From TrEMBL, chains A, B:
<feature type="region of interest" description="Disordered">
    <location>
        <begin position="224"/>
        <end position="251"/>
    </location>
</feature>
<feature type="domain" description="T-box">
    <location>
        <begin position="1"/>
        <end position="190"/>
    </location>
</feature>
<protein>
    <recommendedName>
        <fullName>T-box domain-containing protein</fullName>
    </recommendedName>
</protein>
<feature type="compositionally biased region" description="Low complexity">
    <location>
        <begin position="232"/>
        <end position="247"/>
    </location>
</feature>
Length: 251, 251
DNA sequence: TACTTTTCACCTAGGTGCGAAGAT
DNA sequence: ATCTTCGCACCTAGGTGAAAAGTA
């Protein structure tokens, strides 16, 4: 499993595919922020070895970048509202510009601005995380500070969404997948191209498979303390339809 | 003064120019909704008489359409946040489709949806209104109900923004202005066109002149009960820069 | 050599008025 | 005759990877 790659640029590049999440088990009447940050998987720098098609460790990680939190633009919203929609992070952009003047910020809910750009190092491995933050525990929430942890804040990681940052794609199979599935890259599609083994490639990259993931919480409306298997870091995945809540996280 | 025209379509058409407003004098720490609705100027139907370039009464108004309120997508926000930005209503669209299935709604702040489409009758005169609604008086706020009035709600009308709804432009001077100033109509610009008298036409239409209007309120931070001339229906207008608050409205 | 930046053609997505056709 | 609808060419705005050029 060599993982996928994400382009980072000075101006900021979207992730593709974007993280999409379906949420269950929130208190419908509580208010929540939903946020995303991206944390290093290890403290290593990588290089891609073309002849073996593998990422190899190439030294220690560069010095950490200022932490950025992407607060979902629909924040602040009720649990009811969040659960009725698929929460998409397609506006988030990745940059390698450490000196970003924060001019790329947008208004996002009462008293909060939205950081459109998350700063990362190239040639490093990263893990996106989704945070669900109850309003009454959000006092320290800021685009420029780490997400607070503890009561009222629940964090989810999807290991299959780990990626390596690049300024130009290294693995040609990744390039092919991006061109084939991103509508904005349609201009590079070769209709007569060899598609043999595409399905096999797809299956190697769980990241691409079910675009919507499910975050499960204790469902305040439909269930009573059914202890499920979700730990908060290995949530269930659903392709379509209403997920079956199997809550363990209390929020 | 024959007023400007706005196209309405089944799918919905933006107003051009869009209403833009600068707000002063709010309590920085209070939460407010800002909304727009569009009310009939009279109960008449109109027709355009080409040879005299005038709108003439052509009968009584059609039966009223279901009221729609456009809640500004940045709602709910603090007075502080509202006052730091120019509030633009450029996402609002006008339609003549009375059977609009409300599928054109967007999430807008906790517990509220945003009506993108406002339903109007063609060949009628309308007045856009801006409402500033304090959160604790917003219990009845809904995209499908009239804006509540009374304490905690302040309504502003700008008489120079009255317009006539059409499905195709009647006055050719209006057409020329739209093509000349709307970037999306650039394809219809005739660079060699006669521009004589364009400035004169401009001055006839106050609507086009200063794109940003100012809503003044009692400024809780900088002043103490200075009774000004603003009545809430004849607010001052400013082209650029920070307006001087001359508040009379208490909110 | 190994990586980054810049420019570019080619897309998606959607906002214009025009003009022919449709409706009443 | 008067008004509305629809398809269209032509825009704005911005998201793609390719390829060339830049950097160290």
């Amino acid at each position: 499993d060599i993982g996928t790659e994400m382009i980072i640029t000075k101006a900021g590049r979207r992730m593709f595919p974007a993280m999409r999440v379906k949420i269950a088990g929130l208190d419908p009447h509580q208010q929540y922020y939903i946020a995303m940050d991206i944390v290093p998987v290890d403290n290593k720098r990588y290089r891609y070895v073309y002849h073996s098609s593998k990422w190899m460790v190439a030294g220690n990680a560069d010095s950490p970048v200022p932490p950025r939190v992407y607060i979902h633009p629909d924040s602040l919203a009720s649990g009811d509202t969040w659960m009725r929609q698929v929460v998409s992070f397609d506006k988030l952009k990745l940059t390698n510009n450490e000196l970003d003047d924060q001019g790329h910020q947008c208004y996002c809910g009462p008293g909060h601005v939205l950081s459109l750009l998350i700063i990362l190092h190239s040639m490093h491995k990263y893990q996106p995380r989704v945070h669900v933050i109850r309003k009454d525990f959000s006092s320290e929430l800021s685009p420029n500070k780490p997400v607070p942890s503890g009561e009222g804040v629940k964090t989810f990681s999807f290991p299959e969404t780990v990626f390596t940052t690049v300024t130009a794609y290294q693995n040609q199979q990744i390039t092919r997948l991006k061109i084939d599935r991103n509508p904005f890259a349609k201009g590079f599609r070769d209709s007569g191209r060899n598609r043999t083994g595409l399905e096999a490639i797809m299956e190697t990259y769980a990241f691409w498979r079910p675009p919507v993931r499910t975050l499960t919480f204790e469902d305040f409306t439909n269930m009573q303390k059914q202890q499920g298997g979700s730990t908060g870091t290995s949530p269930t995945t659903s392709s379509t339809g209403t997920p079956s809540p199997s809550g363990a996280a209390h929020l």
